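Give me C-alpha cells for this 484-residue protein.
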Amino acid sequence: MNEFIPLMVIIPLASALLIYLFSGKNNLIKAFAAIVAIVIPIIPLIANYGMHYFGGHPPMVNNLTGVLYHPAIVYSFGSMQQLFLTVFGILVFLVVLIYLNKYKKASGPYLFLIFMGTAAITALMLSQDIFHMYVFFEIAAIAQVGIVAASTIKNRYETALKYMMIGSIGGPILLLGIGFLLAIFGSVNITDIVQGLSNSVISLSSPIFLITCGMLFFGWLYVSGLPPFHTIKSSVYSTAEPHAAALLQAFSVLTMVSILIALFRIFSPLKIFEILLIVFSLLALILSISMALVQTDFKKMIGFLAVGELGFIGLGIGLGTELAITAGLFQALNEIIVTALLFIGFGAIADITKKTDIRQIGGLIGHYPKLGIMMLIGGLAMAGVPPLNGFQSKLMLVQASLDAGFPELSVITILISIATFTAFVKIFHSMFLKSKPNALEISNEKIPKSTMFAVSILLLLCIIFGLFPSIATNAISGLVGGLL
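Here you go.
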C-alpha cells in the first residue's frame, strides 16, 4: 500500500486540530500554517498511483457467490486525482499565503476551517465509498458555513444560516439515497455496487432503484449548487472574503466532480440519469448567466458566473462519450483556476475601494495597470478565448456535442460563452476603462504582493493548460477509460 495516499488527508486534518489547539500562539500557528500549506501540493506529486485499504483489508472473495467485495474503506489515487489535488493544493497554499499576509494576528479557528475543509475535499476525491464521501462532504459543508460567517462582508450571517437551513434538506435526502443503496446492495463501496448491478441484483426499471437515483441526484444538485440552489451558492461566494471565495469555489467543483463520478458509475445505464444531468446543467448555464448580466455588484456577478460555469462540467459528463467526459473534467480543472483568479483579483479592488457596485468604480487602469491586464486575460480565459485554458475545454465540449449528434448543445455552449464574455466586459469596462466617478477616492494603496503573486501563478496555469492541454487531458483520460 502507498502510505502517502492517506497522508493527503491526515496531514491537513491533523494540522487543523493542532492549529486550533495552539490558536493563542500567533507566530507559531502562522509559521505552522505556512509550512503545511507548502506541503499539501507536494504530497500528490510524490505519491505513487494505487489503492489504499484502511485497516490493511484488501478485497475479498465471497466463497459462496464468488463475488469480489471490499470489507474496508478504499482510497484510489491515479493520474486524475494527482492533477486535481496538486492544483487544489497550490490554491490552498495561495489562499493561506494571502490570509497570513493580510492579517497580523491569524485566527486559529479560521485556519482550522480552511485545513479541515481541505482534508474533507481531498478525502472526497480519493474515496471509493459513497457513505465515506457523504461524511466528508458534511464536514466540508460545515467548514464552508464557518468560513462565510467569519468574513467581514455584510449579510454573512444570513447567508451562512440560509446555507445551513438548505443543507438540512439536501443533506438528509442524499444520505437517505445512500441508505437505499446499502439496503439494495449490502455495501456502500462504489465498485461493489457496480458489480451488484452487473450481476442483476436489482432491475434498472425497479421503482426503488429509480427513487434512489432521484434522491441522490437531488442531493448532488445541492452539493454542486446547480438549480434550484444556484442563488444561495452564489451568495456564499459573494459574502465570503475574496481569498475564501476562491477556496469555496474549489470545494464546490471538487465535491461536484467526486460525487458525480460516483453517480455516473452507478446510474449511467439509466437513460433518464443522463437526460436529467444535461437538462439541469443547461438550466445552470442559462439561469446563472442571465442573473449575472443584470447584476451591478461585481462580486455577485462573478458568483453567478462561477455557478454557471459548473453547467459545462455536467453537460460534458452527461453526454457520456470519452471526449465529452474528458472535456467536462478539463473544464472542472479550469473552473478552479480561472474563478480563483477572478475572485482574488477583483477582491483586491473591493478591499482598496471599499466598493463593489460597478456604477461607483472606474478609472482603475491608470492606477493598477498590471492587475488590470492580468484580470483581462483571466476573464478571457473564463469566456473561452484562445489560446487560454477555457478555450481548450470548451472547444472539446463543442466537438464532443457534434460527435454525439447534438449540434444544438454546441450552439448553446458557444452562445453561453459569448454571454460570459459580455458579462465580463461589463465588469472590466466599468472598473478599469470608464472615467473615474467624482465620488470615488483612490488612495493609490498598493495591492499586496501576496495577492499579485497568487494572481500571477493562477494566470500562469491558465496559459500553461491553454498552450499544452495534453498535460491535463492525458491525466484525465485514464479515469475516463475506466468509467466507460
